[in-house]
Write a structure and sequence with these properties.
- The structure holds 2 protein chains of 2 kinds.
- Chain A folds into 2 domains: 87 residues, Cyclin A, domain 1 (Orthogonal Bundle); 96 residues, SH3 type barrels.
- Helix content of chain A is 27%, strand content 16%.
- Chain A has 7 helices and 6 strands, in the order αααααβββαβαββ.
- In chain A, strands 1, 2, 3, 4, 5 and 6 form a 6-stranded antiparallel sheet that branches.
- In chain A, helix 1 packs parallel to helix 3 and helix 2 crosses helix 3.
- Chain A is globular.
- The model of chain A has no long low-confidence stretch (mean pLDDT 97).
- Chain B has a two-stranded parallel sheet with strand order 1-4. Chain B has a two-stranded parallel sheet with strand order 2-3.
- Chain B is globular and about 60 Å long.
- The N terminus of chain B is likely disordered.
- The chains are: A alpha+beta, B mainly alpha.
Chain lengths: 221, 231
């Protein structure tokens, strides 16, 4: 099966203009905050991780036609259906038709503030030494992978400079596939605009990504 | 806050807020017509889902209200503005913020979800910083709250990395050619906060007064801090 992300948009030609928005205008209809809250509350049951939910969102076939919270809702429904927690006919009926499945936890109102303040840090201790140092010239991997990944298409097969080592972080590609955290060293890699976009790139433009170690290989100067 | 209608140009009838905003939302996102022939269909669907989740004991309905209230009224860009204003007035704090943003920001009690690993990047005459997430909509929630619709839009995510000056122009910002642009694509769990340049003519201003000049967009890098005249 071919894995296709509809969310990898960097550098693509997308028609339209940016519509500015005043500060404080967080939602645009009453159901949106409810989708946010349901998503966070269900995330709080520990049934999936953030990378799994991103993977489901980016592979929704109608992604490009959906608004942000429509994407969140559709992904939430699919994550739960995949785990037999809530089936589509129950949502249609608006009531429980099948017994609940066990979840690890339930996020209670009294715990929300502490849970949000704690977040889910992804920094981990690992034994290996980092392969790269700030200043190293590196080339990003070229090949397309058949799963969720955080190496954007526009930055594949490009040469850049390692700027910063962030420590070892949960590896999104593995975590999204339910293969565990498999933490790896994470680096900021900066590219010259011309490397990404060709000779016509705006002068002085530099773009960086945060890249896990396995996305990178040494590049001859 | 969700129902703040001050941006709406058309108030010609007594309307249901949800319907009005339902209509607006599509305009904001992609400019396409809604797929929902029946207004309020999404509200009904989400209500139905919430009922099922409650009945199954997966969620505490009271927790939903706390979550909504948190992101509607407690966590927003005024948090980040306090960080920036502190950095403007206190060189020791500024140095700490640039060296260890997570700790410096946590010292003001802004921590947690979608801001676990923070980096602050400072605008200068030589470099202007702009933040994007081309892969989804990663954004530093503890300091900026939830992202605006345009930040999540395909238009912004596609263009910010390729034509940042064009994006800035749409925001009414024009920078000298001598200012290089640096775009930070948040592709992992590191979140970026732009520290805009302190406007001229603010010498001796208090931290609170300075914080009023720090806009959300200036901390994403699609805007500049307000000048005293724009305040």
């Amino acid at each position: 099966m071919t894995y296709t992300s509809h969310a990898d948009l960097g550098g693509q030609d997308v028609p339209g203009r940016i519509v500015q928005e005043p500060e404080g205008e967080v939602f645009h209809s009453a159901w949106e905050p409810r989708v946010l809250a349901l998503t966070l509350a269900m995330g709080g049951t520990g049934s999936w991780n953030i990378d799994q939910s991103r993977s489901v969102r980016e592979t929704l076939p109608a992604y490009a036609r959906m608004s942000y919270y429509e994407i969140w809702l559709a992904a939430l429904e699919r994550l739960m259906a995949d785990r037999l927690q809530v089936l589509p006919d129950e949502i249609e009926a608006g009531r429980m038709l099948y017994p609940p499945r066990e979840t690890k936890r339930v996020l209670r109102a009294a715990e929300v503030a502490a849970a949000l303040a704690k977040g889910s840090p992804t920094l981990r201790q690992i034994d290996s030494q980092p392969r790269f140092r700030a200043g190293d010239r590196v080339r990003t991997q070229v090949r397309h992978v058949e799963h969720h990944t955080r190496l954007p298409a526009y930055a594949r097969g490009k040469t850049g400079i390692v700027e910063h080592l962030h420590g070892a972080h949960v590896f999104a590609d593995a975590n999204a596939q339910g293969l565990g955290e498999q933490p790896q060293w994470l680096y900021t890699v900066v590219f010259d605009g011309r490397e990404l976009w060709g000779a016509n790139s705006a002068p002085g433009l530099r773009v960086s990504i945060d890249a896990w170690e396995c996305y990178l290989e040494h590049s001859a100067p | 806050m969700a129902h703040d209608p001050h941006h709406e140009p058309h108030h010609d009838h007594d309307h249901d807020h949800d319907h009005e905003h339902e209509h607006e939302r599509h305009g904001h996102d992609h400019g396409h017509d809604g797929d929902h022939s029946e207004l309020g269909a999404m509200d009904l669907r989400v209500r139905a889902l919430q009922s099922v989740l409650s009945q199954k004991g997966y969620i505490d309905p009271a927790a939903l209200d706390v979550l909504i209230d948190t992101y509607q009224s407690k966590i927003g860009p005024r948090n980040g503005a306090r960080v920036v204003a502190r950095a403007w007035v206190d060189p020791t704090y500024r140095e700490w913020l640039m060296r260890d943003a997570s700790a410096a920001i946590a010292s003001l009690d802004f921590t947690g979800r979608q801001g676990e690993h923070m980096i602050a990047v400072e605008n200068t005459d030589d470099q202007h910083n702009m933040v994007v997430c081309t892969l989804c909509s990663c954004y530093p929630w503890p300091v900026l709250g939830l992202p605006p619709t345009w930040y999540k839009s395909a238009v912004y995510r596609s263009r910010a990395v390729k034509d940042p000056r064009g994006v800035l122009a749409e925001f009414g910002v024009s920078l000298p050619d001598t200012t290089a642009i640096r775009v930070w694509d948040s592709t992992a769990e590191v979140r970026y906060l732009v520290v805009p340049q302190r406007p001229a003519g603010t010498e001796g201003w208090s931290e609170d007064r300075l914080a009023d000049l720090v806009t959300r967009d200036s901390m994403i890098g699609t805007g500049l801090a307000r000048t005293p005249e724009q305040r």
